[in-house]
Amino acid sequence: MKQVSIVMGSDSDMPVMAKAAEMLEKFGIEYEMRIISAHREPDLFFEYAKTAEDRGIKVIIAGAGKAAHLPGMCAALFPMPVIGIPMKTSDLGGVDSLYSIVQMPSGVPVATVAINGGANAGILAAKILAASDPVLLEKVKAYIAEQGDNVAEKDGKLQEEGYQAFL
User: Radius of gyration (Cα) for the chain, nearest Å?
Assistant: First the structure.
């Protein structure tokens, strides 16, 4: 059963949102992926957000740029966690998107990752789901250990070969 819904307002967001999907796949989490505009298709968007819980969705990852209303609107309609990914924009570099997602009114929280932080959104969704899934929690712990091992390996290479090894 799909537990996470990845939603974006435009296909131009796909490279960032695909990173969230890759992380979910790494953890074995089933997901759906949709392109729905809260501004251009409000009726379809409302149906999507209001029925997500009934479809078994536990977390929504919503990416948006510029005015970035998609994550906040999801949070207004969906009773479980929403993770917002602010998209880098050509106008203001994504700061506009970041502010739109971070500055939600009291009572309508959106967990927000870095600008273009698709991978972190996928990891955060996994951590949220792992709170009630011991098998998934072990996968998350293994991923964290793997990250530490990667850093230690790079440090070892630096210590053996010097900084020239990284040029």
Answer: 18
Which amino acid, one-letter code, is at 154?
K
What type of residue is 99?
Answer: Y
Question: How many CB atoms within 10 Å of residue 118?
Answer: 26
Percent of residues in the chain assigned helix, strand, coil, to nearest 5 = 55, 15, 35
SS3 146: helix
C-alpha distances in angstroms, 90 versus 37, 49, 83?
19, 28, 22
Res. 163: pLDDT tops 80: no
CB 38 within 8 A of CB 73: yes
Contact present, 75 and 108 (Cβ < 8 Å): yes
Map tokens 């967990």 to a residue. 111
> Is the pTM here over 0.70, yes or no?
yes
